[in-house]
Task: structure prediction
Amino acid sequence: MSKNNHSMMQRDLAVLWHPCTQMKDHETLPLIPIKKGDGIYLYDYDGNRYMDAISSWWVNAFGHNNPVISKAVKDQVDQLEHVILAGFSHEPVIELSEQLVAITPPGLNRVFYADNGSSGIEVALKMSFHYWLNTGKPQKTRFITLKNSYHGETLGSLAVGDVSLFKDTYAPLIQDVITVASPDCYLRPDGMSWEEHSRNMFAHMEEALARHAGEVCAVIVEPLIQCAGNMRMYHPVYLRLLREACDRHGVHLIADEIAVGFGRSGTMFACEQANISPDFLCLSKALTGGYLPMCAVLTHEHIYQAFYDDYASLRGFLHSHSYTGNPLACAAALATLSIFKNDNVIEKNKVLAQKMSNATRHFSDHPHIAEVRQTGMILAIEMVKNKQTKEPFPWQERRGQLVFEYALRNGILLRPAGNVVYFLPPYIITPEQIDELARVTYAGIDLATR
Ligand SMILES: *Cc1c(COP(=O)(O)O)cnc(C)c1O
Result:
């Protein structure tokens, strides 16, 4: 049988169950089998090309089949593909840990590995709870999270998230958390600055901390951008206030930079923009340039020390995943970090971010676009039914899906979240490609909002 999109789709649909998908959609919506990736482009079995404007679910930092990362992984395959990380070690994991300690905010000098983002969140939650247990505060068992936040899909990480589409169904299975209003600046009153709104919204967090600090292990946040929560954004002042309040109330701060780390927010790490250091920093997605699954959880020496004791004390952190610290993933991560170092990526991204802004400047004149917002290398466009009242299109109408289909027909992979279309491109995108992306997106939104 010849391999084309149709034949591959038939084989796929006979045996696979895809993530985050109502499989019945594929009765009408084609599934796109990808044969090859090269730079920003993906190629299917019929020879069509798609610009990957969402970095393949936010993981791909420097394009597909990147020569530097591919070579590093190939070289590592010939040396050591994997070894158990309990009782054993290897150079790539040592080197990567040294480099992560060096480039992350001050004080984060211990690195623990998990093999995906959700598992990394579980690590941070368990470590925080366990730290308080080991230091004589067993009554600390709860977590504070923000409305509209997302931290992953496993039951623990789902519990500290707040995207109802993913969470509500499983409510009977998950832990109760304290959910506080988000500093989300889309919701700010007309004419108010991001900074003032984010500062005002902190009153809710202060109140929750004052009331619950005694029973709370940690506050968990996505610094600056709630990505899965439709790319809602807020001002760094919120993180500064949060750091100060967590210290004052004796509560940990967990920064989930799984999506926004590695330059996505405009700085290497979003926490830098608030000049803070969290107690736990979770990194994944772009960590390996989009090559292999891996999550790094960084924390402080004093937290590590609270677990350091004789075995029989049973204070150790006895958590593991089979692929912890996988050497191939470490090699991909080291190559990714080398590109950041050698290519002046953060500086160059400023030009690309400005270009994304310029290319979409006229979007906000559209009668169904309520807001175009941007933080660094993420630009989001909020489609609404009524621009004056910000009344959204009913979710059942799936307007974003129409944009997705239009963009696909025009050679671009976009994957709107609800009524929000966003650009989250690999950092190798060119100004010309940004223009094309903006042109197709505008036409797609115009069509989808009729
Ligand atoms: C993607 C994501 C996660 C979960 O990571 P997975 O590797 O998909 O489990 C957690 N937090 C944030 C902010 C994310 O964007």
Notes: The pocket of pyridoxal-5'-phosphate is lined by residues 116-118, 121, 150-152, 222, 227-228, 256, 258-259, 284 (CB under 6 Å). The mean pLDDT is 97. Residues 31 and 131 are 46 Å apart (CA to CA).
